[in-house]
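hey all, quick one before standup. I had two proteins in the batch that finished overnight and I want to keep them in one place so we stop losing track of which output belongs to which input. First protein below, input sequence then structure tokens straight from the run.
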Amino acid sequence: MRRRLYLLRHAEVSYVAQGRLVRPDLAALTAAGEEQARALGALLSKVRFDRVIVSGLPRTLETARRVLEGRDAPAPESWPDFDELRSGRLRDLAPGALETSLLGAFRGPAPESQRFLGGESIGELFDRVLPALQRLLDQPGWDCALLVLHGAVNRALVSWALTSARNFLGHLEQSPGCLNILDHGGGWVVRTINYRPADPLFLDGRGTTMEQLYEELRSAVP
């Protein structure tokens, strides 16, 4: 039998407040993010989860709690191996390097050597998230799991399910508060990618999440 993973990206947060950068580990859901999480909760209200897994970063835990609000569900488990792609320090970037170092991995298939803001590489991301995924699949006793993770992490996992290789398809958009549905058993079946119950037709614009982040950071980084 196939088991099912409902793979979410955390709902919207802001990494800039009053013109100043917010530490990624402290970023909280915006009002729009709270609405996105509630919309996911309504969509998934009839699904029974045996496991709930978050990265441990507050934005994933807060999203999971709002999705599961008022329901009898397992307590979220924090798996740090599913943390977001780790950046370097913005102040260490060479002048004019922000756009390339931020967006380079998200404009198409990215090589494993591509680094995110001078920090972790795509290869290093695969090195930690794929063993974590396999560890989950190797554990018995569950049929349906909710994973609330991050944009780059989700791209790595969905890319793996689609290609069975360490291909990072950076142009697979993962919008805040989006849903992916993956089944596993005798191989992968990919059923849904980047579904947004709050705006399923993407009427709010055609920019990507990472392009929006670039504009935020550009206004805050000297």
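OK second protein, same deal, sequence then tokens:
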Amino acid sequence: MSERLKMLSVEDALAAAKEVGVRESLAPLSVYRVLLHNPDLAKAMTELLSTLLFTGKKLDVRLRELIIMRIAWVTGSNYEWSQHWRFAEHIGLAAEEVVAVRDWKKADNLGAADKVVLAAVDDTLEHGKISDRVWMECATHIRSQAELVEMVVAIGHWTMFSQLLRSLEVPLEEGVDAWPPDGNASGDDNY
């Protein structure tokens, strides 16, 4: 495994996080041990991440996690897949539902709302935007305009995170299983 950027020590990452107000619990994560080379940028990314995950969330958490897992699968982001696998389990998604994002069009264990947000992900990754047809379907399954905005931001945010993780070759934390539950990987990277 190559190392594009040397990860900060946990101690240096904690100090940088404290300096800019990034939660200390994030600093030991590999992604933050890389991001905190630029503390101001790490803070800005954390603020959006925290808004999407905790404080300003409008979009159903299940749909958000399916979005993230699809992005991780299509882009081949092991780090994103492996980290969010644990979070998806935490919020109650069954392993079979998460694995279904790999080939969601054939999945019989995903609902209509699940499939339409996954179509929105695929449209965005393939064409850079959500098509009119898919947007209209999203609008029939997603309750509010605030949720639709959040869906678009979530797709963009986690696509950017995948690119960042893969480009900076951020490794998984020690002891974290790669590509759960079965080790099947999408792509050639380990990031």
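Flagging for whoever picks this up: The two ends are 10 Å apart (CA to CA). DSSP finds nine helices and no strands in the chain.
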